[in-house]
Design brief:
- This protein is mostly helical.
- Among the domains are: about 55 residues; about 100 residues, Orthogonal Bundle (Cytochrome Bc1 Complex, Chain D, domain 2), CATH 1.10.760.
- It has eleven helices and four strands; from the N terminus they run H-H-H-H-E-E-H-H-H-H-E-H-H-E-H.
- Helix 7 crosses helix 10 and helix 9 packs across helix 10.
- It is elongated, with a radius of gyration of 38 Å.
- The structure holds heme C.
- Heme C binds next to helix 8, helix 9 and helix 10.
- Heme C (HEC) binds next to helix 8, helix 9 and helix 10.
Length: about 280
């Protein structure tokens, strides 16, 4: 009988939490991942269970006063825990702490403060001293400073991540690479795949001159990246390289090509296409 009631409470609480959880998850994404929210749920569950136990015990001892002794021994650990937490007087000693006054028959017991509360109170005083001195006397980081620090750290982390995740880029996010290592890699790729048509110094043979400021398909890192990954116009001979090169490699070889701008090849091919003006392109 007692056990049953117990379980009913627990199951009911868990169902309520599950529903709450679901709703919170839908409406406030991220909130349920907070460890404090989870801790709150657990504490509430324990509180509900304890409450059920107390109510059960009261009910039982009322209904079954004669077998109180037996009850006591059965729930010994629990009783002594409750006694330690609340330090209440047993009912038959209540006369000792009954106060003199009575209002309309309502009397008052002069109970000790419950230790669980009292020590919690002391703990909060000690905490307050620490809090006050850290935040107000020693100028500890407040939320804004903490936030800014976290954002700065996050930026460092993102930059770090981007370095290792070069292949996440596409034509819209690619930026000109200036790192020695990237350009060296680009040069290797160029020597391997592109020299046949563009020549080692970029002067051009089957493919156009890559060192001048004239571009058939548009200059600037974004256009060059697109040309290299998607290929040139149909039938001209410049194939799409995206199946052979990773996005990071396309960015490297494109950056390498652009680093050739303004150099003078031994046998430059005549300019093809239009002068590329980066500023005009931005306005477009
Ligand atoms: C088979 C010959 C061939 C190879 C190999 C080749 N290209 Fe090309 N490339 C061309 C031709 C031809 C064009 C002109 C395309 C057009 O007119 O549409 C071109 C155009 C380009 C352009 C655009 C130039 C402009 O003026 O807009 C770039 C950039 C380019 N190639 C880079 C590369 C890179 C990088 C590689 C190596 C990964 C490469 N090409 C390999 C033949 C080649």
């Amino acid at each position: 009988m007692k056990i049953k009631g117990y379980f009913r409470t627990a199951i009911f609480a868990i169902i309520v939490f599950a529903v709450l959880w679901y709703i919170l998850d839908l409406t406030m994404i991220g909130l349920v991942e907070q460890p404090l929210v989870i801790l709150g749920f657990v504490v509430l569950l324990i509180a509900i269970l304890f409450n059920g136990k107390i109510v059960n015990n009261l009910r039982e001892s009322r209904a079954n006063n004669s077998t109180n002794e037996e009850n006591n021994s059965k729930n010994g650990w629990y009783k002594s825990l409750m006694k330690a937490l609340t330090s209440t007087k047993p009912m038959d000693e209540e006369d000792d702490i009954l106060m003199d006054h009575a209002y309309d028959g309502i009397r008052e017991l002069d109970n000790d403060l419950p230790p669980w509360w009292l020590y919690g109170f002391y703990a909060s005083i000690i905490y307050a001293i620490g809090y006050l001195s850290y935040y107000h006397l020693m100028d500890g980081d407040d939320q804004i400073v903490e936030f800014n620090k976290e954002m700065a750290q996050a930026k460092i982390d993102v930059d770090e991540y981007k370095k290792t995740a070069k292949n996440l880029i596409d034509a819209s996010t690619v930026e000109l690479m200036t790192d020695e290592a990237d350009l060296a890699n680009g040069k290797t790729i160029y020597a391997e795949k592109c020299v046949a048509c563009h020549l080692a110094d970029g002067g051009g043979s089957i493919g156009p001159n890559l060192t001048d400021e004239y571009w058939i398909l548009g200059g600037g890192i974004k256009n060059v990246f697109t040309t290299v990954s998607e290929g040139g116009r149909d039938g001209k001979g410049m194939i799409p390289w995206k199946s052979e090169l990773k996005p990071g490699e396309i960015a490297q070889v494109s950056s390498y090509i652009l680093s050739l701008q303004g150099t003078t090849p031994t046998k430059p091919k005549d300019a093809e296409g239009d002068i590329w003006n980066a500023e005009e392109a931005v306005e477009e």
